[in-house]
Amino acid sequence: MTASSSRRAPAATPTGVETLRWRDGRLEMIDQRVLPMRFEYVACGSAAEVADAIRTMVVRGAPAIGCAAAYGVALEALRLQHLPRREFLNGLEAAFDALAASRPTAVNLFWALAQMRSVLKRAAEAAPPQIAARLLDEAHAILAADVQANRALGAHGSALLPESVCVLTYCNAGALATAGHGTALGVVRSAVAAGKRISVIACETRPFLQGARLTVWELMQDNIPVTLITDNMAGHLMSRGEVGAVIVGADRVAANGDFANKIGTYAVAVLAQRHRIPFYVAAPLSTIDLKLASGETIPIEERGADEVRGFADARWAPPQAAVRNPAFDVTPAELVSALITESGVVHAPDAAGIAALFSRAA
């Protein structure tokens, strides 16, 4: 991976900035590890480099990870297209394996790889350069479809919000977590575009600080009022009537409506129920895993201890301190007021309501 940098963020808003972009035969992604202090694109030229970017959180957010994985397959096909067919196909299999192993929880990764494998199967008799071209076309299509889905999702979610409301959000489910517009923040953006008066409370989201570093930056670029709080302040503000709705994204939604999101989401959902605040989940259909009956079997990624002992160059715990670092938790469907997708909204989501979403989309 290589990086090009600018000390200042671009003048365009995050909805104009491309989280992922195709430039000169390479995939470029905003390096989300260094925002908001620096704005840099990291360029990848192979599946291995994309897998490393996903694993090290250059790119994060379930929809963005899926898009990146699709381009990872296309990059490898382009890189190997001069090889004999057997070597070419073997190389692509290794690319699929490397990308699938990069992060376990976000189902969009596996959805995108399945889409790419389907294209590969249909084009299997073509010459390697033709296969590579078709795989790249599919990656472009996956990226464009994600933006379209997020805008449709945002419109559906906007209708749930009153004319004036303060929304609390957790982690980053915005343009930076997707191909553009965002899921949870897509709802906010769509509501603002519809003329509603929306302000946002963003939890910092320990330990990787996606809320503090990414959500706040995005909303400030769009001039949407945002206030940053530490994660343990959410209950206090809810108890004082300062939160009108909670909107979060998701990394995997089970068939019954249970969902995995950034660690700490479950606690926010419990607090929202206690204070009778609507708790909305915004996610595209590609995040729903119908193969999992409930959230009990969603794989939960455990990340490295150093993410908890400190951040960047700062350290606040003894280097040998024992650490647990589950990156996600599972929130049961009974705590969810509504699931917002590009196919519509399911109130009090359950298996029947979620299945109906796919019937509408068919």
Describe the protein's architecture and organization.
Mean pLDDT is 95; it is low at 5-12. This protein has 362 residues and is an alpha/beta fold. The protein contains eleven helices and 17 strands. The two termini are 39 Å apart.
Give the secondary structure arrangement, pairings included:
Elements: E1 2-6, E2 20-23, E3 26-30, E4 39-44, H1 47-55, H2 62-80, H3 85-100, H4 107-122, H5 128-158, E5 164-169, H6 184-193, E6 197-203, H7 210-221, E7 226-229, H8 234-239, E8 245-248, E9 252-254, E10 259-262, H9 265-274, E11 279-282, E12 288-289, H10 306-309, E13 310-311, E14 314-315, E15 328-331, E16 338-341, E17 344-347, H11 351-361
Parallel strand pairs: 5-6, 5-8, 6-7, 8-11, 9-12, 11-16
Antiparallel strand pairs: 1-4, 2-3, 3-4, 9-10, 10-15, 13-14, 16-17
Helix pairs in contact: 1-2, 1-3, 2-3, 2-4, 2-5, 4-5, 5-6
Approximate shape: globular
Q: Given the helix and strand composition, which structural class is it?
A: alpha/beta
Q: Please report the first level of CATH classification, the CATH class of the largest domain.
A: Alpha Beta
The CATH homologous superfamily of the largest domain corresponds to: Translation initiation factor eif-2b, domain 2
For the sheet with most strands, the description reads: 7 strands, mixed
- SS summary, helix count: 11
List low-pLDDT spans.
Answer: 5-12
Counting DSSP E segments of at least 2 residues, the number of strands comes to: 17
Whole-number total of structural domains: 2
Strand order of the largest sheet: 7-6-5-8-11-16-17
- Please indicate the percent range of residues in DSSP E strands (runs of 2 or more): 15-25%
Query: Into which percent range does the helicity of residues fall?
Result: 25-40%
Could you say what the CATH topology of the largest domain is called?
Answer: Rossmann fold
Query: How far from one another are the termini?
Result: 39 Å
Q: Provide the CATH architecture of the largest domain.
A: 3-Layer(aba) Sandwich
Mean pLDDT: 95
Specify Rg, calculated over alpha carbons: 20 Å
The SSE order reads EEEEHHHHHEHEHEHEEEHEEHEEEEEH
